[in-house]
Amino acid sequence: MKAIWKGSIAFGLVNIPINVYPASEEHTLEFHMLHKKDLSPVRFARICKADNQEVPYSEIVKGFEYAKGEYVVIEDEDFKRADVKKTSTIEILYFTDIEQIDPIYFEKPYFLEPDKKSGKAYRLLHDALIKSKKIAIASFVFRQREHIGAILPFQDGLQLIQMRYHVEIRSFETLDMPKEKITAAELKMALSIIDQLSKSFEPEKFHDTYVESLMTVIQQKLHGKKTVRAPKEAKISYEARDLMHLLQESMKKAVASEHRKGRSHLKAKPTKRKQTRRKSA
């Protein structure tokens, strides 16, 4: 991985030089814009509004419009001059419990790698966060904007999760929420289904089935085959079938699924018992 930012973590009087790496990457299919008549690629150009000519990227600067049609040019050095400390430091503001933060505030994860000479201080912060069961709330500047973030242990190191500001979260009160009352029997049945379907989270078992399906369509078109459309899922009308009946059907499905798993587990056991008997004999 290539570091996207270098700076340090300010932890009280302790300064921990670190490198920052993106902790996630997108796995999507990339599509190109083509001219329909001959499938030639279409490129997007940077056109100057004054002379209608394309401008090379090397000649483009950033400008702030302080009045209509009037700009002041801001260069890289100007961004750094605004606040040198903030552009090179992830400053820990305080520590808190992760349960106090709603997941909607978490935006983007990064990995923090210690500089060669800061291993012990880095390890101290890592171990202290684990022992205290706390996370650090910090401020930092990435790409000419100040952010808040959470520093927390991840496996044998530290991760930084960039967070959204409170003003960026839209109000939930504008949505039309249901006013129907739930019966005790319906709630009990729903809780039974939740209990039946509860298991440990295994993120490695999830994958993008839509991209896989789209890739199948692409392969079919490449080989001149007619693409097969996936069957539409039947829509359930709550007017035709009452909620309690749907819950009961869901429970039956969940129990049947667990029963099938159990039978498949039992089928594997007799082979082991036979082998044990032979060894005993």
Outline the structure in words.
The protein has 281 residues and is an alpha+beta fold. Among the domains are: 5-25 and 61-166, Beta Barrel (Ku70, Chain: A, Domain 2); 182-195 and 245-268. Helix content is 31%, strand content 25%. The chain has a seven-stranded mixed beta barrel. A hairpin with a 2-residue loop joins strand 3 (62-67) and strand 4 (70-74). Helix 3 (184-196) packs parallel to helix 5 (243-280). The longest helix has 38 residues, at 243-280. The relative contact order is 0.10. The model is unreliable at 268-281 (pLDDT under 50).
Low-confidence stretches: 268-281
Percentage of β-strand residues: 15-25%
Q: Give the CATH class of one domain.
A: Mainly Beta
Secondary structure tally, helices: 5
Q: Helical percent range?
A: 25-40%
Overall residue-averaged pLDDT value: 83
User: What is the SS-derived class?
Assistant: alpha+beta
Q: Please give the radius of gyration in angstroms.
A: 28 Å
List the helices and strands in order: EEEEHEEHEEEHHH
> Rough shape?
extended
CATH topology of one domain: Ku70, Chain: A, Domain 2
Number of strands: 9
Biggest β-sheet strands, sense, barrel:
7 strands, mixed, barrel
Gap between N and C termini, in Å? Answer: 57 Å
The appropriate CATH architecture of one domain is: Beta Barrel
Give the spatial strand order of the biggest sheet.
1-2-6-9-8-7-5
